[in-house]
Amino acid sequence: MPPDTLQQARAKRGEKPRYCGVIMLASSPSGKLLKFPTQTEKISGGKPPLLHLVLDEFGRVTHCHASRRQRSISNGDYWVDIWSDPNKAKHVFELALEGVPSQLELAFAKTGETFMASLVPLHSDRMVVAVGVALASRPRSRPPTRDIVGRLGFLTAAKRLQARRRNEEFGVAILAIDDLARFQIDHGYEFGEQVVTALHDQLTQLHPPPDLVARLGDDQFGVVYGKSSQFLSIDTIELAQLGSVQTNDGATVRFVVSGGHSQNSSVSRSVECLLREAEIAYQQSLRQKTGAAIGFTGEMRNAMQKRASAIAIADRALSEGRIFPYFQPKVHLATQKLVGFEALLRWTGPDGAVQNAGSIAEAFETVHVGRRLNEVILSETLRIAENWRSKGLLIPVAINFSQLDFQQPDFASVLIDRINAAGLPAEMVEVEITERVLLDDDNDTVGQALERLSKHGLKLTLDDFGTGYASISHLQRYPIAAIKIDRAFITGMEHRAESVSIVKGLIGLASDLGLEVVAEGIENYEQFELLKGLGCPIGQGYLFSPAVDPDEAEIVAKEAPTWQTHSSFGAT
Question: What Pfam families does the record point to (predicted)?
């Protein structure tokens, strides 16, 4: 049972209830709660007090006092349940005052930075009970900026600054420490806070200094700057080397910072808009992994709108069952015989037209939609492959997997179980991944999963090979069995000697390492002849066939055609 509240304790002692003002208050008209130092005031008997609440620039209550003279300050604070009634013109909250339901009415009679509020007894059938007691921190007239003020507190302060500079330049930035959680895991939470403090100090010591630096969350700061020249000091410094912190054993640890910013110059925009644009630029900075502050551009807005549209389209297509796999043949170039398929996502629009995955590519990067897309393709491909196997068609099928798949617990074990449940031999399923999956493998989770899949007998293929900066090192670290030369090197290779040289080198490297090679994007006879002459064993592309539906793929597998690759042959 929870401990007695002070109200219950006093009732047992026969004492009369007292009013106890618990300062836990939302300062914004939206009624959203903010955290701030708390203080409790008690007044014996009589009418409830009138409380004066004083807020700082972030909208946090710094201290309060009662209008009555006889009062005492308590060192206890009570956790209470709070409700907001959005239908009331005056924002009304109900809260427990020593277990007695009461009403806190915000009149918002503002004088300077002081808000007036009155506590009034409220008789209600709903009983509100305090469930615990905690020590109250001593009130501070101005909380340190390193305290988390949140997005709402930052907006409150930024709006005041913008109101004073209606016709002046005004900018908002977001800067965040990359992998703060890793610092906390490796060195402890207190060390992580030292990293945060170091970033805060770096920002406030810039010249010229920003107008406002506020902590939005555990690893993130919001910054307000006036003229564009002020932010230049943030934009031009090497954020990757912004600061360093010493561990307890004397080692120096550097932290990397990513950021985004948006400037309000010729076109007047609200603080909310600038902050949203800064957040978009910050997300772009994270994707680029460069440790830099990126300015918001119109192209980013277009990309954001395109991404939102793609997610909405994919989500609706999933709900309506309009996502399915098509299968593109993989051909042995020397014999022009079918050696397998690659399962590729296709979807139909409202008009019934089949469209490729590129039109909703952005949706694959979101967790809630991307995983569902991957799941549909995996489930359907296994079902179709199981049907082919039952008809004696043991044709290998390559399935693409993303980093979202490998983030799921026991991904390898679950995949193996599903393949076994479908009755498919391991050699019928190939796992295709891109280099991005491997780049996100900080704790070797992906490596362990790939080892498990490889030991089960699944062929692992590295897609888009040659486009990443660490492709060759990945061949040493992971159990890759095949590489797919990216279509960027195949397209136009008949006209570019350097492309031929690169492809020749990749084929030779793979051969020396005992890896299978697949060239994707073969579209004409000249490319086919070049690749065959360079010793590339397998290819796929429109020269042979586009991706086709399961029924047509089954016909192709049964007939096992030999493609006549002469100069007049092409996709139909």
Answer: EAL (PF00563), GGDEF (PF00990)
Token pair, residue 153, equals 């507190």
Superfamily of domain 150-296: Reverse transcriptase/Diguanylate cyclase domain (3.30.70.270)
pTM for this structure? 0.64
Question: Alpha carbon of 127 to those of 95, 100, 102, 130, 142: distances in Å?
Answer: 10, 8, 10, 10, 35
Hey, what amino acid is at 392?
G
Other C-beta atoms lying within 10 Å of the C-beta of residue 460: 18
**What ranges make up the beta strands (E) of 249-363?**
252-255, 257-264, 293-295, 323-332, 337-348, 354-356
Range in 6-20, 134-148, 230-244, 410-424 the model is least confident about: 134-148
What is the pLDDT, as a whole number, of residue 249? 67
Residue for token pair 């709070």: 82
Report d(CA 420, CA 408) in Å as an integer.
19
User: What are residue 102's DSSP bridge partners?
Assistant: 95, 121
Alpha-carbon distance of 186 to 181, in angstroms, equals 9
Please, are residues 133 and 75 in contact by the beta-carbon 8 Å criterion? no
Contact (CB, 8 A) for 84 and 91: yes
Query: Would you call 392 exposed, middle or buried from its count of C-beta atoms within 10 A (0-12, 13-18, 19+)?
Result: exposed
The pairing of strands 61-66 and 50-55 is antiparallel
Q: How far is CA 438 from CA 9, 85, 365, 432, 502, in A?
A: 61, 50, 15, 12, 23
CA dihedral 537, 540, 545, 548 (to 10 degrees): 120
Window from 89-93, 144-148, 341-345 with minimum mean pLDDT: 89-93
What are the domain boundaries of the chain?
Answer: 6-135, 150-296, 307-559
Contact (CB, 8 A) for 523 and 541 = yes
Q: Using alpha carbons, select from 64, 85, 68, 55 the residue that is nearest to residue 22.
A: 64
Per the CB < 8 A criterion, the answer to whether 397 and 340 are in contact is: yes
Q: What pLDDT does residue 131 have?
A: 18
Query: Cα angle at 509 between 508 and 514, to 5 degrees?
Result: 95
Note the pLDDT tens digit of each residue in 53-95: 445 566 554 544 444 433 333 333 222 222 233 333 333 333 3
β 538-540/323-332 pair status: antiparallel
Residues 90, 105: Cα–Cα separation, whole Å: 7
For residue 258, give every residue at least 6 positions away whose Cβ sits within 8 Å of its Cβ, in sequence order, or none. 175, 176, 178, 239, 282, 285, 286, 290, 291, 292, 293
Question: Beta 220-225 vs 170-177: how paired, if at all?
Answer: antiparallel
How far apart (Å, rounded) are the C-alpha atoms in residues 52 and 39?
A: 12
CA dihedral 433, 439, 441, 442 (to 10 degrees): 180
Helix pair angle (271-288, 150-163), 10° resolution: 120
Residue 328 β-bridge partners: 342
What whole-number distance in Å separates Cα of residue 459 and Cα of residue 464? Answer: 16
Architecture of domain 307-559: Alpha-Beta Barrel (3.20)
The alpha carbon dihedral of 95, 98, 100, 102 has a sign of: negative
